[in-house]
Amino acid sequence: xxKINLSDTIAAISTPIGSGGIGIVRISGCKAIDxxxxxFVSAKGKKLSEQKSHTIHYGSIVYEGKTIDEVLVSIMRxxxxxxxxxxxxxxxHGGYRAVTAVLNAVIKKGARLAExxxxxxxxFLNGRIDLTQAEAVIDIxxxxxxxxxxAAVMRLEGKLSAEIKHIRENILTMLAHIETAIAxxxxxxxxxxxxxxxxxxxxxxxxxxxxxxxADAGKIYRDGIKTxxxxxxxxxxxxxxxxxxxxxxxxxxxxPGTTRDVVSEFINVEGIPLDITDTAGIRNxxxxxxxxGVEKSRSLAEKADLILLMFDGSRELSDxxxxxxxxxxxxxxxxxxxKLDLEQKLDIGDIGIEPVNISVKNNNGIDDxxxxxxxxxxxxxxETDNEAIISGERNKACLFKALQSLENVMETIExxxxxxxxxxxxxxxxxxxxxxxxxSLEEDIIDKIFSEFCLGK
Length: 457
Ligand SMILES: Nc1nc2c(ncn2[C@@H]2O[C@H](COP(=O)(O)OP(=O)(O)OP(=O)(O)O)[C@@H](O)[C@H]2O)c(=O)[nH]1
Ligand SMILES: [Mg+2]
Hints:
Layout: E1 10-13, E2 22-28, H1 32-39, E3 40-42, E4 55-63, E5 66-76, E6 87-93, H2 96-108, E7 112-113, H3 118-125, H4 131-142, H5 146-156, H6 159-183, H7 190-213, H8 215-223, E8 225-231, H9 237-245, E9 263-269, E10 272-278, H10 288-303, E11 306-312, H11 319-327, E12 333-338, E13 356-357, H12 366-377, H13 393-414, H14 419-437, H15 443-451
Parallel strand pairs: 1-7, 8-10, 8-11, 11-12, 12-13
Antiparallel strand pairs: 1-2, 2-6, 3-4, 4-5, 5-6, 9-10
Bound molecules: guanosine-5'-triphosphate (GTP) and magnesium ion (MG).
């Protein structure tokens, strides 16, 4: 059982730090409305505690005799709020000083500074949302493309939870079946029991496998495809990054060894987020700074999901090029031959992979790169609007654990081992799936999940 103190009232700035149209201080907990009232002077002399739920009030925040800002205060009473608790939101003019001064006053009046994600954590602990939905909130906040956001919204709406619950119900039915068989052996027809369990387990396995199959797409929509542009110096890597971003982000010169530090950006390839990195051209060099850059390029290449391996079509294949082919041979790689506008001297046969021919200078062939990426990651086929997509390593690990337990069940049946074994593994699968929605989870794991949030959410 979780022992988390929900009795105190928490507060935080819920808007980004900086100048903006408005800044919001959010307060949640049983004293939220009283605390807001203690520093609020209504323009019409209203008392917040006497106002209806889900109403907005105009006035000022006054603390220790000084007016801090002109504000609008929204009050929302439990249980129909984000956290299921009383909430007051103070809308200030969005300057850093104004919001922090209001937050300080709120804290002095008895609220505690909220931890990252604590508002959402309360929504979870108060039972309004389950863990897949809470995680979906983080994913919506961090969504890099509309497709990423759509996939997360589906989880927030409970599509993934519904699927997990369906599989768990199936497992529970089987468990009940076994318990009855064990309790009333005289009524037990063993072949019947085994046949029913086998059918149910097969179904559960198929359901879990289907969800696992969405994990790659889920990861891509959430984190983006980690893409690294690799090549020897001067082939046009930084030029390609700039072309993809449609802005002059990286420095381009005709001097080999221009890029020393890595430059990373997100680009949106028809809904697929690409986390793309331009690297220092790889070559043997005595220059200390360049050497560090080259080492970074190598280690980034190791961790990448996708490598755009670039060659200069106007030069013959060099030892550096061959070294790069060797370095990337076990990676998902798209070979690009650049500078198609110049006289071609590169012998493609040497590379052994069908390349995409481009000229960054003339903006030629860039669409072919996009096409190739979509083909390679085959995510055109996953429809974010009608399939639950799992996201995050935690969920994937739980699904794999459940799958393993279900496969153990099948083995037990094949070897006609005692029903107790089946019962044990089904229970394990049931619990692993429960971890996804946040049932039977340890407190520290829950804390870790919510610490990924930003402040004020
Ligand atoms: N003709 C021609 N020149 C190009 C093309 N793409 C890039 N260049 C030129 O090639 C030179 C090198 O380009 P960069 O983008 O700096 O090359 P890089 O691979 O980033 O080089 P390093 O950072 O040194 O590793 C520049 O002078 C570019 O203008 C192309 O498609 N055709
Ligand atoms: Mg460069």
